[in-house]
Amino acid sequence: MKARFTPALFAHAEAVLGQLLRFDYPADAVVSRYFREHRQLGHADRAFVAETVFAVLRRGRSLEARCAGKLSDRRRLLVALAVTRGWSQRELAPVLKASEEEWLAAAKAMPEANLPPAVRCDLPDWLYERLAAQFGAEEVLALAGALNQPAPLDLRVNTLKSSREEVLARFAADGIAAMPGPLSPIAVRLRDKPALAKHPLFIEGAVEVQDEGSQLLGFLLEPKRGEMVVDFCAGAGGKTLLLGALMRNTGRLYAYDVSDRRLANLKPRLARSGLSNVHPARIEHERDTKIKRLAGKADRVLVDAPCSGLGTLRRNPDLKWRQDEASVLELTGKQAAILDAAATLVRPGGRLVYATCSLLGAENDEIVAAFLAKHPDFALSPAEAILARQGIACSGDMLRLLPNRHNTDGFFAAALDRKI
Fold it and tell me: Per the residue annotation, which of 67, 121, 307, 357 is the catalytic one?
């Protein structure tokens, strides 16, 4: 159902955008808080507000360039609706002033090819330069184009409670358009974004929201029944729940994180999942005594490291304006320290998977190369072979997912096996 476009609805979008552009808090948190404070907004109204303000965050540089000069939040929204969402002046009539019609027509008519590459890609200069050095200018243009689109809604089927076929049949019966994910054998992709939290499949724990690319990290770790497995940076537990299901609810699965709040978010998800082999625990830092007790005992350890998040710009477009080269440098120091600490848990013959949702080589290949140089008792195990054993097509020694090639978030992962 489409929202009815009114001056009042536009005013809500303008209010949210004003808060977002201060960049005091993550965009999704700002939007969620606003909706909690304005419960009168229906599902369609919320979708309009969120999609419109996120369009401004995604396309900020090119929209400003089209409008030469400082833009008010009102004008940012108008040009976003006209350019990124293709609205006509007739559709904008409820809020468009006569004095703005000529300005908006000129902004919409500007050829995109006239814009400098970084502006055309809607990336800060430093990030464009890094990505162009890695991928080449042509690939970055395609990559940025994909990053500037909204992400689809992907679900992971909880195989302890259902199968992908059963989930797809249930959605079809309920009139919800869904299809199998092309990469993960337990992924379902929805065509639209229904109010999923009220659907019985979600309430019963048969499905969880999880990007299809994120699901492949669990298959790369390849946990087995009865093993001891550690999710070293568990966060809110999306990958923890996947690992527990892959282990068929056997063995012991430790979910570590430094944040009480994130682990608290895991609890309701854990209750829905039906898993009983998960042991969440807060740690102070990567050298916590809880970790030392497991030294050399774990069969598998997943390190989904804190990172810049630049692979998730489809969902979190504000990150490209919140991160800079200094913050990336600080993160790489943390990533190396966390990976070193996690490695101490792995038994001989066990596996360590290092993963990020970053696009930058500094957070990915360079961290892995430095680790292997420092730890000759570990070796890179080809991702292609590991995933092929599970019926998943992937090329290369390391997992590299890009939104323009795979229609997932940007992910990197390396499987590092400890020699016997």
Answer: 357
